[in-house]
């Protein structure tokens, strides 16, 4: 998709509408979680994987940002409206897009993408935003978050693998290519 | 996986409901910055008073706000406790292994607890007194300056309104698909990790396929009704500033001035 065309029609309109729908899917999935109480795995990351895989890094990132805005409009942003969380919502699909978009599904890509997202988004950026937002000590916050982030990525990798396998089997009609 | 409630808007007729969503959103965003200005007991007292006044001005039951704070209260306590025992400075009261209880740690933990609660309360006021559609309109308005750096704001606005419109629809669809798969033996809540990861596919694939179909149908319908991009279109839903927004932003300016006076320099 071209970022700067004035007119939106035909295929591009279709892609934009589909982007809106995938964002809606991401928002719905992020309301679900599974696993035992101490390590709840939210399903929102599946939406990020879909955004990156289907729309590429740039529009995936745009979609991630919009999903954060829309979900805070509907459900409210737990822990306050803060632009930093919108930025992190953009980085996840961006990384998935760089590694998955128009590329064959490989185990190493899934492992690399999940580790990158976990380290950059969940461990560094989100901790940084919370530290800034509530004026807290970064290292202490890190101490609190690391145990969870050491377990969750491995579960995410397995789910990502099955999701990508499933998505790649869906025949996307010529209208979207 | 239980049913989720779409939207947290609770109808009411207090003054705060008449305020423009743009003013409210701006106030909510700035609140996060203003809270940094507080650095002594007096300034924290002032900002607590302001928040309490805002909460009372909504004329809603305390339970609404308690529901906003409840999901995070455990995390807030845990975070405050960590800050309490790992912050070192001032008078030391008690020490064991790596844990230290100091006067600086105590005030720091209390400040953090207050900050957390206030930010959650103000955000709750925002989402509870404003309809999602209005919040989305306000966000679109806030994004307008990005046009100057060539961000396709009109496309973003289109995608945003489609996503907003389809969250409830696709949510119903998700539940229907889950029930349909369940009726034929699918199990979404049991089994090991891999079984559960696999169970997501029978949910996601039909959802995605139906979204593809919806996207084709909706874009055809939009084109049939003469949609050619957002250039040269009028707006049916318009946001209007009123005197209530003056109250909103004026009280905010007063708060900032008072905070600047009473904070420790």
Give the SSE layout.
The complex is a heterodimer of chains A (177) and B (265).
Chain A (H helix, E strand, L loop, with lengths): L9 H20 L3 E2 L6 E2 L1 H32 L7 H18 L6 H28 L3 H32 L8
Antiparallel strand pairs in A: 1-2
Chain B lengths: L20 H14 L6 H17 L4 H25 L5 E5 L2 E4 H27 L2 H12 L9 H31 L9 H7 L1 H24 L18 H20 L3
Antiparallel strand pairs in B: 1-2
Helix pairs in contact in B: 1-4, 1-5, 1-9, 2-4, 2-9, 3-4, 5-6, 6-8
Structure characterization notes:
The complex is a heterodimer of chains A (about 180) and B (about 260). Chain A is mostly helical and about 180 residues long. Chain A contains 5 helices and 2 strands, in the order H-E-E-H-H-H-H. Chain A has helices at about 10-30, 45-75, 85-100, 105-135, 140-170; strands spanning about 35, 40. In chain A, strands 1-2 form a two-stranded antiparallel sheet. In chain A, strand 1 and strand 2 (about 40) form a beta hairpin. In chain A, helix 4 packs antiparallel against helix 5. Chain A is globular and about 50 Å long. The mean pLDDT of chain A is about 85. Chain B has about 260 residues and is mostly helical. Chain B contains 9 helices and 2 strands, in the order H-H-H-E-E-H-H-H-H-H-H. Chain B has helices at about 20-35, 40-55, 60-85, 105-130, 130-145, 155-185, 195-200, 200-225, 245-260; strands at about 90-95, 100. The N and C termini of chain B lie far apart (about 50 Å). The model of chain B has no long low-confidence stretch (mean pLDDT about 90). The interface between A and B is large, with 69 and 80 residues.
Q: How are strands sequenced across the largest beta sheet of chain A?
A: 1-2
The count of strands of chain A amounts to 2
Shape of chain A: globular
- The H-and-E topology of chain B, N to C, reads as HHHEEHHHHHH
Oligomeric organization of the protein chains: heterodimer
Question: For the CA atoms, what is the radius of gyration of chain B?
Answer: 24 Å
The greatest interface here is: A-B, 69 and 80 residues
Spans of chain A of at least 5 consecutive residues whose pLDDT stays below 50 are none
What is the count of helical runs of chain B?
9
Structure annotation, total helices of chain A: 5
How much strand of chain B? under 5%
Q: State which percent range the strand residues of chain A make up.
A: under 5%
The gyration radius over C-alpha positions of chain A equals 17 Å
How would the global form of chain B be characterised?
A: globular
Main sheet specs of chain B: 2 strands, antiparallel
